[in-house]
């Protein structure tokens, strides 16, 4: 608990010294989520477990069971820029106490040229219940001169901090439960990118996992139902951006996921709040949980989400909603 208090103190100090500046990399950090699962659950991202996707938002949000994982996603467009797209790719490795990951996220647009971020993350599990993480980011913005067709590249560096802790767990004859909390500060230390300040986003959230102890008519190996409830709050200390969100996931037979969410967000340059309901589905094949003669330590997860296109300007946009897909392939550490 002392380590958690120290992390919160460091994040609070950073806020007290912050000032308002025009912010950079808004497309990557404010309006688009990394994965379909995060998007479907109301864009909650501080504590949620979703492969390497989660680590982009909180460097301490590594899964407990994935030894090696690959995460990919692609979605778009952004507002009325029909040719724009977002792409995400990540690799993650973990053992009992040490975790690391490499992440690339890119926004391509004929209007705003190309904006990318490359993140390296290291995390340590200091105890069974607490993980601390730190990440370094390289932001790169490519600006094309229409007249000369020359491309100018601007870069900036930043630092992320985060923690994740399980605060309560237990079981009885009817239900198993576990709850966790986490916080992160993205771009704790940051530079200017093309004359604008990278946003310093502080996030805090919680997650509750419930497993009813009921018989499964389909399998003796798999749990019948997992219910995950998550919520978080984000605020950028350099702008008016803020977001509150919540989501719920029901995982049936450890294979089929149904997700819903809600978020309310205020963006820089917009006088009105953006609020929306989100939903999505997921299918995973947990080979590592199956009773077979030969152990297959893999898990494959394909997720889909449907959420509104980010409408910052308040004008009519097409398409009104985005369909997102994401894929995670994982080599698991153990069966249970």
Features of this protein?
single chain; mainly beta; 55% strand; disordered N terminus
What does this molecule look like?
The chain is mainly β and 336 residues long. Helix content is 9%, strand content 55%. The chain is built from four helices and 16 strands. The chain has helices at 2-16, 26-31, 36-40, 53-57; strands spanning 66-75, 85-94, 98-109, 113-125, 130-144, 151-171, 175-190, 192-193, 196-197, 201-212, 225-236, 242-252, 256-266, 273-286, 298-308, 321-332. The strands form two sheets. The chain has a 14-stranded antiparallel barrel with strand order 1-2-3-4-5-6-7-10-11-12-13-14-15-16. It is globular and about 70 Å long. The model is unreliable at 1-21 (pLDDT under 50).
Please, how many helices?
Answer: 4
Oligomer: single chain
Uncertain segments = 1-21
Instruction: Find the structural class using helix and strand composition.
Output: mainly beta
The shape, in one word, is globular
| Rg from alpha-carbon coordinates | 20 Å
> What is the percentage of strand-forming residues?
over 45%
Q: In which range does the helix fraction lie?
A: under 10%
Topology pattern, helix = H, strand = E: HHHHEEEEEEEEEEEEEEEE
Strand order of the largest sheet: 1-2-3-4-5-6-7-10-11-12-13-14-15-16
Sheet having the most strands: 14 strands, antiparallel, barrel
Mean pLDDT: 82
Distance between the termini: 27 Å
Secondary structure: number of strands: 16
